[in-house]
Write a structure and sequence with these properties.
Blueprint lengths: L5 E2 L7 H5 L28 H10 L7 H7 L19 E4 L5 E10 L3 E8 L4 E9 L6 H13 L8 E7 L2 E7 L6 H7 L6 H19 L5 E2 L8 E4 L4 E4 L6 E2 L16 H4 L7 H16 L10 H9 L13 H10 L9 H6 L8 E7 L5 E7 L8 E6 L5 H10 L8 H16 L3 H72 L4 H6 L1 H10 L17 H12 L8 H11 L4 H13 L5 H6 L2 H5 L5 H12 L1 H12 L20
Antiparallel strand pairs: 1-6, 2-3, 3-4, 4-5, 5-7, 6-7, 8-11, 9-10, 12-13, 13-14
The chain binds adenosine-5'-triphosphate.
């Protein structure tokens, strides 16, 4: 570090800021720099040509050649000799106050500045070490004053200015380090175009920075807003306005012709002076570049053509490519006449960028009746509105309407704010966590008790039904035993009768049948007592058919007779239809009883397992063992006058039991 280096220390007193009466002019301490013109200055070039010559004579920022120079700015990659990989990062210079150390890592190079990475040894974070070539030594007092102003500018969307000093033929200043380059480079990285959400987020941040600068008294005008001078911290999407070197306090109209032609408002070219609205014009061009990815007035070959178009009110060609009507509306307003242009704050509040306000509950009395609410307009603190709300007497709708009428709230948020207040009121009504837990406990308890009651009721019904079943079963048992007793009595009676008859006079079977009592007994011994025509089995419509069946039954069934033939005959003989016959046959076949022989082989106990009704079993047994009886029955039906065959079997039980 050369001993010529002068470090300038600054007082925190910024009274000079307010008192600033002359325009900031860096010509004092570095060149090439802006040229200040005053309307009283006779040297003002009046024609474009004069201006061009004038500007080219002075290598100023305003030089129309500047744009072309801009295009030739080497990228860090192009500066191979100076690019140093981070692996070999090392300290190459120390600031006069020894607080900052410059590293050999080049961050970038512009038309005027070369920027290196540096470290703030006091705070322990990285900063940017900006160097500018300076032709002449600055006046210390002026430098101190200027830098004092730059240091006083503190806003999250403006690159912080930390320190500055004048070195050997160079002016050095330390600023906040931005990690992700300029907005212009970043737009290209988001090819084809950044989406609307990103454009809005960037715009909001740029405008907040501008609103802050323009909100100073007197306003600070940046004068070189463009995407190259807006920097990005990619990790958080933070956007900050940089290159404050051209910023100026506005005291009355400005006349310094400075900036980048494509971004310069028409009034900057004129002699009438300009104000902070030139930054809004430049912001409009930035928005145009964000929305189209194109540099404004890219169709112009040189700065003179741009000047001509701007002066004639011809807008950049890429304006036609803006698709979104809201974005287009904002750009058009920014590019309109100075008087019509919205301020940074107004654009922020424009529906395109406005963020819906929050409504927060600041305080409430213990009964949650008297509330203090606040509408917070994000990024627009001035508009935050605090108000009281009585839950018992006020409604959200009324309160919001009143505030709109009194112009305390903008009407466009009426619905949103009303909804938010109602949400807060609902939340207040909501039970606390312990109340909620108690409610859950109670509802579980209620449910449990309902289920228990239901269980008791069902158990009672079940007991009742069981009792009924037992009762009915007992009745069944008693009926059954009564039936058995009746059956036994009946058998005894028949036997006694027969014995009696035999004792009295031995009868032939024929006689026996003729006796009315015996006839009656015999008929009850038959499987079915009816002899009406309707009881004739289905399929026995003619006497021939009946004859055939009788003779068939009278024949002994051979052992190999198919069981279904036997069963069908049996069903017919017992006045059952063919469907019954099929059912019986199926049950027998399921037990592997395929022939009459199989049936004959059955032991008495096996009969019970066949699964047939008692009626069917008796019919089959009778048919098998006492087919003659069945034949008699049939004969009686067919030929009622002819005598039935003799009784050879013990009588079956009454069919009522079957
Ligand atoms: N604060 C910073 N943090 C990180 N990099 C920076 C910072 N300031 C500048 N740079 C890098 O240095 C490059 C040159 O800076 P800048 O564009 O401000 O220089 P300039 O000479 O003022 O350029 P212009 O030609 O736009 O006037 C930038 O493109 C950027 O890559």
């Amino acid at each position: 570090m050369s001993s010529d280096n002068q470090h300038v220390s600054f007082s925190s007193d910024n009274s000079t800021y307010e008192e600033q009466s002359s325009e900031l002019n860096y010509t004092n301490y570095y060149a090439p720099l802006s040229q200040t013109y005053n309307s009283n200055d006779n040297n003002i070039p009046s024609t474009l040509e004069e201006q061009q010559n004038h500007y080219t004579n002075y290598p100023t920022r305003t030089s129309f050649q500047h744009r072309m120079d801009n295009y030739n700015i080497p990228t860090p990659n192009e500066i191979n000799d100076e690019s140093v990989s981070h692996d070999s990062e090392k300290v190459v210079e120390v600031s006069p106050n020894e607080r900052y150390v410059k590293l050999n890592t080049l961050l970038g190079k512009g038309a005027y500045k070369v920027v290196y990475k540096a470290i703030d040894r006091e705070e322990g974070y990285e900063v940017a070490w900006n160097t500018m070539q300076a032709m002449q030594s600055p006046n210390n007092k002026d430098l101190e004053h200027e830098i004092q102003i730059l240091k006083s500018v503190r806003h999250p969307n403006i690159i912080a200015f930390h320190d500055a000093w004048y070195g050997e033929n160079e002016f050095v200043f330390i600023t906040e380090l931005m990690t992700s380059g300029t907005l212009r480079e970043y737009i290209r990285k988001l090819a084809p175009l950044p989406n609307l959400k990103i454009i809005k987020r960037w715009s909001r941040q740029i405008l907040k920075g501008l609103a802050y600068l323009h909100g100073h008294n007197p306003p600070i005008i940046h004068r070189d807003i463009k995407c190259d001078n807006i920097f990005i911290n990619g990790a958080h999407g933070e956007v900050k306005i940089g290159d404050m070197g051209t910023a100026e306090m506005k005291l009355g109209k400005k006349y310094t012709v400075i900036g980048t032609p494509e971004f310069m408002a028409p009034e900057m070219y004129e002699e009438q002076g300009y104000n902070e609205k030139v930054d809004i014009y430049a912001f409009g061009m930035c928005l145009l570049e964000m929305a189209t990815g194109e540099y404004p007035y890219g169709e112009c070959k040189n700065a003179a053509q741009i000047y001509k178009k701007v002066s004639a009110g011809v807008k950049p060609a890429c304006l036609l490519k803006v698709q979104n009507p809201e974005v287009l509306g904002v750009i058009e307003n920014c590019l309109s006449n100075e008087d019509e242009r919205m301020s940074a704050q107004e654009i922020l509040e424009h529906s395109f960028l406005a963020v819906e306000p929050d409504v927060v509950l600041l305080a409430a009395d213990p009964d949650n009746v008297h509330l203090t609410l606040q509408v917070v307009f994000k990024g627009m603190d001035k508009l935050s509105v605090k108000f009281d709300f009585n839950v018992e007497t006020d409604t959200a709708e009324e309160v919001v309407r009143e505030m709109i009428e009194e112009q305390v709230l903008p009407e466009r948020y009426q619905h949103h704010i009303t909804k938010e207040i109602n949400r807060i009121l609902r939340d207040i009504d909501k039970p606390t966590e312990s109340e909620q837990a108690e409610q859950v406990r109670r509802s579980v308890w209620r449910r449990e008790s309902d289920i228990r009651n239901e269980l008791d009721r069902t158990r009672e019904e079940l007991n009742h039904a069981t009792d009924r079943v037992l009762e009915i079963e007992q009745k069944c048992d008693s009926f059954e035993s009564r039936a058995r007793a009746a059956e036994t009595r009946y058998r005894d009676a028949v036997r006694n009768l027969r014995e009696l008859e035999e004792i009295k006079s031995p009868l032939t079977e024929e006689d026996l049948i003729k006796r009315p009592m015996l006839s009656e007994a015999l008929s009850s011994l038959s499987i079915h007592s009816s002899n009406t025509s309707s009881s004739i089995p289905h399929g026995l419509n003619t006497p021939e058919e009946r004859e055939k069946l009788v003779s068939h039954i009278l024949d002994e069934y051979s052992d190999d007779t198919d069981i279904s033939v036997f069963v069908t005959d049996c069903a017919l003989a017992s006045h059952r239809g063919t469907d019954k016959a099929h059912e019986w046959a199926r049950k027998l076949q399921n037990q592997d009883i395929m022939t009459v022989g199989d049936l004959r082989d059955l032991h008495d106990e096996d009969w019970a397992g066949i699964g047939l009704t008692v009626f069917a079993l008796r019919a089959l047994k009778n048919m098998l063992k006492g087919k003659k009886l069945a034949a008699v029955q049939l004969q009686q039906q067919t030929y009622p006058a002819s005598p039935p065959p003799p009784l050879t079997q013990s009588p079956p039980p009454p069919s009522s039991l079957a």
